[in-house]
Design a protein that fits this description.
The chain is α+β, with helices and mostly antiparallel strands. 25% of the residues lie in helices and 31% in strands. Strands 2-1-5-6-7-4-3 form a seven-stranded antiparallel sheet, sandwiched between helices. Strand 1 (23-28) and strand 2 (35-40) form a beta hairpin. The longest helix has 15 residues, at 88-102. The mean pLDDT is 88.
């Protein structure tokens, strides 16, 4: 890339998600109600959940605080999830694991919320429905 060439951050984010190196988290905008998307670092957990953390200004994190329902995509895997805000030792562990996976993060990672994105159970159709 030559000096002055612009980097298409959306394309880079799409590649990172497709390679399984980052997660796309889709949230409902707390003000607009529209679906919003962010590409974030993550750590897989043995129970199938993923850990993520944000700086204090990240809109995607603020959206999760307002409505914990989200959709997560990592590589070929996509699932509906519920965000559980972490605190104390759990938050510290999430930030530590992200630093170990990705290297030194931005200086504000950990100043904002951290979450466990736990896969939501599949919806059970009502008796007599045609699903």
């Amino acid at each position: 890339m030559a000096a002055g060439d612009a980097v298409d951050e959306d394309a880079v984010g799409d590649e990172m998600v497709s390679w399984g190196r980052a997660a796309r988290v889709e949230t409902r905008g707390r003000r607009s109600g529209r679906i919003r998307s962010a590409v974030v670092g993550f750590v897989d957990e043995p129970d199938g959940s993923v850990l993520v953390a944000a700086d204090e200004y990240a809109n995607w994190a603020r959206n999760l605080l307002a409505d914990p329902a989200c959709r997560v995509t990592i590589g070929e895997r996509s699932f509906d999830a519920r965000a559980e805000e972490l605190a104390g030792e759990e938050q510290a562990r999430a930030v530590r694991e992200l630093v170990l996976r990705y290297g030194t993060p931005s200086e504000r990672l950990g100043d904002g919320p951290a979450f466990r994105l736990r896969p939501a159970p599949p919806a059970v159709p009502l008796a007599g429905s045609r699903r």
